[in-house]
């Protein structure tokens, strides 16, 4: 019988902002917002001093400035962030080869059989955090659990600079009072749908049969059923290259195509910010739409050179909207914007400042 997995989720604390505060002592103790200024900019990261004012990543920069007028805005420097991320990755690899990076600032580790002897997975997590602090002058939080789903929730429990452990015998008691919104993938729209069924906590969710949840929510319903019971059989998969990154939103009311521009711009900003966290380069812009009748449409375009800025990325996404040929009165319940076709930087052609968006692939 295979041993029960011991999974860590390591999450760097306010990573980009912490790098800025580490490298500039004048920023320490101040509310730092990593973002370009401007009406169309979004927050890449916020220090914990800024978070006290409600500033969060992916928030429009103008809103962050309203919430925290004294915030110090720092433009992102992804070269430095990637250097720090590589240092952290090297520390992970001392302890296990089973490292699955999720972005520059977080990763799953399978330490069921660690390279370095340790009395427990918790001890391994503490050793990793100590080495990160000593070698990079940054802090990380860790979740320790029998699977990826639980480890990710746990890593957020004692942030910043903390560890939280969920032992197998504690899983049911831990999950039962947890708000369903803590389940990855349950956003505000899904949370409302569950609330309409009388489901507010994971314990409430556990009272529904798998068939009922699947009938209502499709494959995600099956996932909800498993999460409610702390089940997650996914293995840690090392060095899985990013294939696509996207952001999507389901509207509170169905909208016509002509009214989708604000949502497309907002989601493009969110996807672009997430894409900058990976070292690979995305080349294909994808627009996804779902009609009120649940018909799904996708439009995509691969320019000769990868989008070099948020403005270019957004312009292509908006141009893709114009290629939708359904009747004008058609209403849409969901829109998504993404990047696909990721490659290593050396494989991607040099980025140009401008490109033609006239000829597009379906």
Automatic annotation (TrEMBL):
- E.C. numbers: 2.7.7.7
Q: State how it assembles.
A: Monomer.
**UniProt subcellular location:** Cytoplasm
Q: How is the cofactor bound?
A: Binds 2 magnesium ions per subunit.
Lineage: superkingdom:
Bacteria
The first-level EC class reads transferase
Which GO molecular function annotation, any one, does this entry have? Answer: DNA-directed DNA polymerase activity
Keyword annotations from UniProtKB, A to Z: Cytoplasm, DNA damage, DNA repair, DNA replication, DNA-binding, DNA-directed DNA polymerase, Magnesium, Metal-binding, Mutator protein, Nucleotidyltransferase, Transferase
The record ties this protein, via CDD domains, to: PolY_Pol_IV_kappa
Q: What does this protein do?
A: Poorly processive, error-prone DNA polymerase involved in untargeted mutagenesis. Copies undamaged DNA at stalled replication forks, which arise in vivo from mismatched or misaligned primer ends. These misaligned primers can be extended by PolIV. Exhibits no 3'-5' exonuclease (proofreading) activity. May be involved in translesional synthesis, in conjunction with the beta clamp from PolIII.
Chief location of this protein within or outside the cell: cytoplasm
Name of the protein in its database record: DNA polymerase IV
Positions binding Mg(2+) in this chain are: 11, 105
PROSITE patterns according to UniProt = UMUC (PS50173)
What is stated as this protein's family in its record? Answer: Belongs to the DNA polymerase type-Y family.
* Location of the active site: 106
Cofactor(s) the record lists: Mg(2+)
Pinpoint the UmuC domain residues.
Answer: 7-187
């Amino acid at each position: 019988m295979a041993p029960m997995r011991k999974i860590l989720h390591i999450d760097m604390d306010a990573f980009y902002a912490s790098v800025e505060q580490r490298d500039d002592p004048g920023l320490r103790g101040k509310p730092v917002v990593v973002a370009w200024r401007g009406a169309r900019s979004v927050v890449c990261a916020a220090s914990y001093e800024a978070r006290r004012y409600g500033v969060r990543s992916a928030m429009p920069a103008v809103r962050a400035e309203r919430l925290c007028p004294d915030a110090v805005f720092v433009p992102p420097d992804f070269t430095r962030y990637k250097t720090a991320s590589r240092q952290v990755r090297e520390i992970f690899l001392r302890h296990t080869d089973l490292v699955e990076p999720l972005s520059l600032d977080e990763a799953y580790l399978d330490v069921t059989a660690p390279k370095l002897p340790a009395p427990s997975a918790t001890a391994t997590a503490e050793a990793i955090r100590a080495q990160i602090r000593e070698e990079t002058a940054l802090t990380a939080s860790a979740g320790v659990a029998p699977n990826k789903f639980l480890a990710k929730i746990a890593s957020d429990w004692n942030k910043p600079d903390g560890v939280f452990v969920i032992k197998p015998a504690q899983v049911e008691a831990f999950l039962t009072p947890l708000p369903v919104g803590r389940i990855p993938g349950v956003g505000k729209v899904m949370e409302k749908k569950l609330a309409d069924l009388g489901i507010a906590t994971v314990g409430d969710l556990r009272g529904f049969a798998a068939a009922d949840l699947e009938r209502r929510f499709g494959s995600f319903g099956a996932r909800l059923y498993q999460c409610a019971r702390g089940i997650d059989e996914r293995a840690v998969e090392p060095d899985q290259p990013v294939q696509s990154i996207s952001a999507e939103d389901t509207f509170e009311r169905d909208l016509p195509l002509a009214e989708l521009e604000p949502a497309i711009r907002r989601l493009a900003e969110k996807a672009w910010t997430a894409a900058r966290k990976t070292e690979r380069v995305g080349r294909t812009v994808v627009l996804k739409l779902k009609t009120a009748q649940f018909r799904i449409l996708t439009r995509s375009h691969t320019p000769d050179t990868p989008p070099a800025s948020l403005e270019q990325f957004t312009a292509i996404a908006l141009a893709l909207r114009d290629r939708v040929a359904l009747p004008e009165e058609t209403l849409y319940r969901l829109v998504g914007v993404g990047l696909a076709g990721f490659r290593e930087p050396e494989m991607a052609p040099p980025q140009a400042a401008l490109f033609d968006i006239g000829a597009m692939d379906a």
